[in-house]
Amino acid sequence: MMKETDLARELKNGVPGGLYFFYGDEDYLKNRRAAEMKKAVLGDDPSSPAYAFGCFEFVFGDGEFDAGAVEDAMLAPPMMSPRKFVSLTFSSVDSLKTRGKAASDPDSPPTMDGSPDPAGSQGAADGGDFAGEDGGKPESRTKNRLLEYLKTVGDPGEDTVVVVKATADGFDPGTAKKPSAFLRDADRFMKCVEFPYQTDARLFRWMERHFAEYGLGAAPDVCPWILKTAGRSMYRLSGELAKTAAYAAARCEREHTPPAVTLEDAKACVAATEEDDAFGLADRMTNGDMAGALRILRIKMSLREDPLLILGQISRAFSDLYAAACFSADGRDVSDFAAAMKMHVYRAGLVFRAASKNPPERYADALALCLEADRRLKSGAAGSSGYAPIERLICALAAGTSGTAGTGAGPSQIPAAGTAGAGADSRGGNPGRGR
Hints:
By secondary structure, this protein is α/β, with parallel strands linked by helices. The chain has three domains: about 1-100 and about 140-195, P-loop containing nucleotide triphosphate hydrolases (Rossmann fold); about 200-270, Orthogonal Bundle (Helicase, Ruva Protein, domain 3); about 280-430, Zinc Finger, Delta Prime, domain 3, CATH 1.20.272. It is built from 17 helices and ten strands. Helix 12 (about 290-300) runs antiparallel to helix 17 (about 390-400). The two termini are about 20 Å apart.
């Protein structure tokens, strides 16, 4: 496995043929690098015959993969160019998992993290995505249709460049110490390239280059403020930078002032990011912001995200927050937390700061209530269809109650699910669970 910076250095010497797998949080750079590779293979003119006959680009939604169409592209010889370029973009690589015939019932509900629940996976040798009820026999393993197809492709040859892109929200790569089963397998025959969120320093330089294209400089406090307000996504930042630069350029021309973006320009143009992530949702829930939590849930509902997947994401976020709160209570700092959890230092800092607002017991209770919501979703009990159990969970946590009116519990005294008739105790808050 390699980093995006390693790939950038490698591409300076040309684009060798072969299979590439792009994954990670920064989708902007994945698409940029893929575009650079396409240009290197087919030339500078998109209207040329080389692009018409040598460029094959596919985009697949959740659960979609047309192996036949891709195979036709793979087998087609390069025409009007000595080489060809094939691009496959997947909104959810993880949605392409399938089970072998000996696996557990395919109609059984997913686990709390939204993935299929292969029976007996705890006893498998590697504990990965491919475990089955027999401890790992091939016929009962959970496989991925994309991965199985790519294995049959092998080396496409020097005349073919194949780039497979997994969007950030649709692929779980695991951790640096324990990559996912998909990534471990793919790394044996593909160049797997991680595209993480960029560091502050790299983002600041990138922002300055954007402003320079408009003939503008920037005051020292502008770039840090934009990053804090708009977030780290380069797609989102690029839109906010374009608005701000156009506004500042017009103002400078009108007022005859030096060509520079000021903090006032940025504040007039940059919109704060409306989080749609599970971490933001969990943080609002535990801090009593019911309206904010429900607003994020509405975003997820509008995107038609699966309720079990949302609950699994919330549970994982609470697990991280609980672990961070325990580290903080023990007097350990964020560097210890990041190292122990194998978490990116930026994300670890966000989680650690958020967790400091509440005692560990708050997050343990939240996890116990997540287990109860998970049980209700899977049981199909009355009033527990769709998003109702998640809405109930949000209201219970944000209001500081277990969901029973008139309890009067304070924000840090939410009864554990076991005391609220959930049939579980607060041990469900173990930070090692749900990860």
